[in-house]
Amino acid sequence: MPLPSLRSSHWLLLAAVAVLFFSLALWMSKQSDRAEPLPWLVDWQESVIVPLADDDLTLERLTELASGELWLQPRAEGPRLVYRSEQEREEGIWRLEAELELSDSEHASLAKALGKGTEEQPLSGEMLGQLSGHRVAVLNMVPMSDVSVARLAASIGPPRLRLRTGEGEVWVYPQQGLSVHLLEGKLQLLHLVPREAMKN
């Protein structure tokens, strides 16, 4: 028995139903992909990321937000002063390491104090207070657990540039002095410097 032919009104109804189902599926996929921002990172935009991009983030300000310790670290090119902190967040622990800006005379003084030692040395809280006015030159933040890249993007926005590297991908935010390092789609490192340093 032959099937009855479809009228144009039937075709319109079928097309409307198809569009409805397609729209519903698209809406549901967007809902499932929508990521919540990391609240602390949203707050750090104004308190840490922007001041560091402006080369105006002091150790004192950083210690107010993330308590930690100051370390003297030997290096072939000369010793460094680094401030380290561990932060427990909703998504897991983050390790922070900030390198301080030092003058030539301060580098020389530290090299003399360190001598020929090759071991890192923790510095006293008193020393931390004395150096609190120093600016932060570099800040590295490393997540110790998996952090969704979607949540990162929801916190700081889409990158200006995306670069493929031999070790994964780098998202670059030049105005914020920020680069985000990814490996196999997983967040490895947030690297922050003054924006002028990114131009070099």
Q: What's this entry about, in short?
A:
38% of the residues lie in helices and 29% in strands. It is an alpha+beta fold.
Structure overview:
The chain is an alpha+beta fold and 200 residues long. It has one domain. The chain is 38% helix and 29% strand. It is built from seven helices and nine strands, in the order αααβββαβαβαββββα. It has a nine-stranded antiparallel beta sheet with strand order 4-1-2-3-5-9-8-7-6. A hairpin with a 4-residue loop joins strand 7 and strand 8. The N and C termini lie far apart (79 Å).
Q: What does the average pLDDT come to?
A: 84
- Class inferred from helices and paired strands: alpha+beta
Assembly type of the chains comes to single chain
Q: Biggest sheet: strands side by side, in what order? A: 4-1-2-3-5-9-8-7-6
Integer count of domains: 1
